[in-house]
Design goal:
The structure is a single chain. The protein is α/β, with parallel strands linked by helices and 692 residues long. The protein contains 24 helices and 13 strands. α15 links the parallel β5 and β6. The chain is extended. About 4% of the residues have low confidence.
C-alpha cells in the first residue's frame, strides 16, 4: 500500500525519539548524577584504606593526632577538604539537573522534534477502505476516503505523547531532587560522627567512630546510587510502554485501513469537547464579567490617576527609554525610502539641513584662522546624536576642496596608542610611528598642511592612570603638531567634562564648540522638512482626553484637545531632551504607514507613562552605564578596573544590563557598548541623577 512506507518511517522516527529520551536520561541522570554519587563513594572508600604501619618509635601523647590518620584533627581535615567538596559537587550536579528538567530545557529538543514531525505530515490523506470479506458479491475495486491525517496524529498521538514527555521531565526532576535531599542527609550522618570523634578522648575510640561513620556513609551512598539507577530504568520503561501504546492507538486504524473508524473517533472527540448548555451559559457569564472588568478597570484607574493629579498637581512623567528599547521591529512598518530620510543627512539635499549659525560661525572662524597661518585646533563636544558630525561636515563642505581633509572615526579597534598612530600615519602618509611623540617628530617630514578630523575621541580615554596618561600624550601631540595639522576633535560631552576637570582640556584647543540640546521648534522644523521630501501625506492620531475632562464636557471635543501635531512635538521635546538623533528615533517608532490610504504616514501619540528601566538598577550597574556613556566602548576588564566592585566582580552586573537590553557586546575584542537606541535616554537619566 502507498501508506505503508509512510507508516514505517513514522514508526522508525518514533523509535528514534524513544531512544533519544533514553539517551537524555542516561546523560543527565546516569552519567552526571550517578557519576557524582560514584565519585562521593570513591572518596569515602579512599579514606577507609588502612593507614601505613607506624614506625616502632616511642610516641608521646602529643603525637597522638599524627599517629592516627583519622584522629581528631585529621578527621576534620579529611571531612572538610576531601569528603565535603565531593558531596557538595554531587549535590550541585543533582540540583542543576533538576532545574534543567523543571525548566523544560532538557526535553525541549524532544518536544520540538515531536511538533515538527507532526506538522510535516500531510493535512489530508486518501486511505483505502478495507474490502468486506464476502463471497456472495463480486469484489469491487478499492474505495479511497480522505482523512485528516495531521489532525488525527496531533489529537490521538502528539498531545498524549507531549503530556508523557512533560511527565517524564517532572519525574526525572523529582528523582534528582530526592537524591540531592538524601545526599544532604548523608552529610548530616558524617557531621554526627565528626561530633563523636571530637568528643572522644581515646584515639582508638575516635578511629572506630570515624570508620563506622565512613562505612555507614558508603553504604548509604551505594544504596542511593543503586536506587536511583533502578528508578531511572523504571522511568524509561514506563515512558517506552506508555508512548508505544499511544503510537499503537494512532496507527492501528491506519494499518487496518479503517478510515470510518478514524472519522468516528474524531467526531466523538469533537462532540465531547463541545460544552453543554449549562457550561456554555456559565462560561458566557464568566466571560461577560471578565469583559466588563477589563473595560471598567482602565477607566477606574485613569479616573483615580486624574483625581490624584488634580489634588497633588503631579504632571505626567515620560518613560524616556521604554519606547526606544522596544523599537526593534520598526524596520518593517515604514518604507525603506522613508526610513532613509531619517538617518544621516545627505548634504546634497539642502532642504534637509537646518542651519545652526550659532555653531557654524566659530567652526568657520577656526578654519579661517588656520588658513591664515596661525596655530589653532577645534574641539566639538556634545552628547551622542546631538549633531557634531553633521555640523563639521557642513563647514568642511564649504571649503570646496581647498585643503586635504582626513577623517578618522575611532572605535574600540583604535583605542590603543599604537593602533591610532598607525591609522593617522596611513591617513596622512607619515612613516610608521608607534607612539604619539614619534608621530609628532615624523609629521614634518611629509610637508604640506592638511586637516585631520578625529571622531569619537572619548574612546581614547579610560578613567584609569594609564588612560589619563594616554590622553595627556595625545593632547601633547595635538599641541606639537597644530601648525601642520588642523585638529578637529569630536568628543562626547560627558568625557569632555571629565577631561576638562582632570587635564584642563580647553587649554589645548583654540576653540571649543559645545553642541547643546536644540529647541522643540528646531526639532519640529527638522522632522517636517525631512518628511516633506518623502512625498507622503501626514496625519497625527488624536490622543484620548483624560477621563475627568470627558465626564465634565462629554459633547464638546474641540475645546478639550489641542492640535494633535502641536501636542506631539511638545511631548517629543520633553522626551528626547533636545537630542536630534533621539528625536528621529522617536519619530520612526511612532510613525506608521496608513493601511487605509497607503500614501499617508500616521503618527501615534507618544506615551505618557513613568519610565522604570533604570529605577531598580544597583549602584555598580549605574556606574557601568556612566563609564560606557563617558568612554563609548570598554571591555569587562576595563570596567572592573574602573568600577572596582567586590565579590563576584562586575560580570553579573553586566549580564543583567544585557538582559535588560541596555548594553550590547560584540566585535573581536568583546567590547561592551550602550545599545544605540538607549544612549540618549540613559545619558539623560544619568545627568538628571547628577552622575555625569
Amino acid at each position: 500500500m502507498i501508506l505503508d512506507p509512510q507508516l514505517a518511517r513514522l514508526a522508525e522516527w518514533f523509535a528514534a525519539l524513544q531512544g533519544r529520551a533514553g539517551e537524555l536520561l542516561d546523560q543527565r541522570l546516569r552519567g552526571d548524577c550517578l557519576g557524582g554519587l560514584e565519585q562521593v563513594a570513591l572518596t569515602l572508600e579512599q579514606q577507609m584504606l588502612p593507614p601505613a604501619a607506624p614506625e616502632e618509635t616511642l610516641v608521646t601523647l602529643a603525637d597522638d593526632d599524627n599517629r592516627h590518620p583519622l584522629s581528631r584533627t585529621r578527621w576534620r581535615a579529611v571531612l572538610e577538604h576531601d569528603i565535603r567538596p565531593a558531596i557538595h559537587g554531587a549535590r550541585d550536579t543533582l540540583a542543576a539537573t533538576a532545574a534543567a528538567f523543571d525548566g523544560g530545557l532538557a526535553a525541549a529538543g524532544l518536544l520540538t522534534d515531536l511538533a515538527r514531525t507532526v506538522a510535516e505530515e500531510p493535512e489530508l490523506y486518501f486511505l483505502d477502505r478495507a474490502a468486506e470479506d464476502s463471497g456472495v458479491t463480486e469484489k469491487a475495486g478499492p474505495v479511497q476516503m480522505a482523512i485528516p491525517l495531521r489532525r488525527w496524529l496531533d489529537e490521538i498521538f502528539a498531545v498524549p505523547v507531549r503530556g508523557l514527555i512533560e511527565e517524564l521531565t517532572r519525574r526525572a526532576a523529582a528523582l534528582a531532587r530526592e537524591a540531592a535531599a538524601e545526599l544532604e542527609r548523608i552529610e548530616t550522618v558524617l557531621d554526627y560522627h565528626l561530633f563523636i570523634v571530637e568528643d572522644s578522648r581515646e584515639a582508638e575510640a575516635r578511629d572506630e567512630s570515624a570508620f563506622t561513620g565512613l562505612g555507614h556513609a558508603i553504604r548509604l551512598v551505594r544504596a542511593l546510587s543503586e536506587r536511583s539507577a533502578r528508578d531511572v530504568r523504571r522511568l524509561f520503561g514506563w515512558f517506552v510502554s506508555e508512548s508505544s501504546s499511544r503510537m499503537d492507538d494512532a496507527l492501528a486504524p491506519l494499518r487496518a485501513h479503517r478510515p470510518d473508524e478514524v472519522m468516528q473517533q474524531l467526531a466523538a472527540r469533537e462532540a465531547r469537547a463541545r460544552p453543554s448548555w449549562i457550561r456554555a451559559q456559565r462560561d458566557r457569564a464568566r466571560d461577560g464579567a471578565s469583559a466588563i472588568y477589563t473595560r471598567a478597570a482602565p477607566l477606574v484607574r485613569e479616573l483615580a490617576q486624574d483625581v490624584r493629579r488634580t489634588i497633588t498637581g503631579e504632571g505626567p512623567r515620560i518613560g524616556y527609554w521604554d519606547l526606544l528599547i522596544a523599537g526593534d521591529d520598526r524596520a518593517g512598518r515604514l518604507p525603506a525610502i522613508y526610513r532613509r530620510l531619517f538617518g544621516e543627512v545627505p548634504l546634497g539635499l539642502s532642504d534637509l539641513y537646518q542651519p545652526r549659525p550659532r555653531l557654524e560661525t566659530p567652526c568657520r572662524k577656526i578654519f579661517e584662522t588656520w588658513l591664515n597661518g596661525q596655530r589653532t585646533a577645534l574641539l566639538v563636544t556634545g552628547d551622542r546624536g546631538a549633531g557634531k558630525r553633521t555640523l563639521v561636515n557642513r563647514v568642511r563642505a564649504e571649503l570646496h576642496g581647498e585643503l586635504p581633509v582626513h577623517w578618522i572615526s575611532m572605535g574600540p579597534h583604535l583605542a590603543s596608542e599604537s593602533r591610532l598612530c598607525a591609522a593617522m600615519c596611513e591617513a596622512t602618509g607619515t612613516p610608521y610611528a608607534s607612539s604619539f611623540a614619534e608621530f609628532a617628530q615624523l609629521l614634518p617630514l611629509i610637508g604640506g598642511r592638511r586637516v585631520l578630523i578625529l571622531e569619537n575621541a572619548e574612546q581614547l580615554f579610560v578613567r584609569t592612570p594609564e588612560g589619563l596618561a594616554r590622553m595627556q600624550g595625545f593632547l601633547d601631540m595635538v599641541r606639537a603638531t597644530d601648525e601642520a595639522l588642523l585638529w578637529i576633535v569630536l568628543m562626547a560631552a560627558p568625557a569632555a567634562t571629565l577631561l576638562g576637570t582632570c587635564l584642563r582640556l580647553p587649554l589645548y584647543f583654540g576653540q571649543v564648540v559645545e553642541v547643546a540640546a536644540e529647541s522643540g521648534r528646531f526639532i519640529e522644523t527638522m522632522i517636517r522638512s525631512r518628511h516633506r521630501v518623502s512625498g507622503f501625506g501626514l496625519r497625527f492620531r488624536e490622543r484620548r482626553a483624560p477621563a475627568l475632562q470627558r465626564l465634565r464636557r462629554p459633547f464638546t471635543r474641540a475645546d478639550m484637545l489641542p492640535d494633535p501635531g502641536e501636542e506631539w512635538f511638545i511631548d517629543l521635546e520633553r522626551m528626547c531632551g533636545g537630542n536630534l538623533r533621539q528625536a528621529l528615533d522617536y519619530w520612526l517608532l511612532s510613525a506608521r504607514l496608513d493601511a487605509k490610504t497607503e500614501h499617508d504616514i500616521l503618527v501615534r501619540p507618544l506615551p505618557r507613562r513613568r519610565g522604570n528601566a533604570l529605577n531598580d538598577l544597583s549602584l555598580p550597574q549605574r556606574q557601568v552605564l556612566v563609564s560606557l556613556v563617558q568612554h563609548g566602548a570598554l571591555t569587562e576588564g576595563q570596567l572592573q578596573e574602573i568600577v572596582r566592585t567586590t565579590g563576584g566582580g562586575i560580570g553579573p552586573e553586566i549580564d543583567d544590563l544585557r538582559r535588560r537590553q541596555l548594553v550590547d557586546q560584540g566585535g573581536p575584542g568583546g567590547f561592551l557598548t550602550l545599545r544605540p537606541t538607549a544612549v540618549g535616554p540613559v545619558t539623560h537619566d544619568l545627568r538628571w541623577r547628577s552622575m555625569i
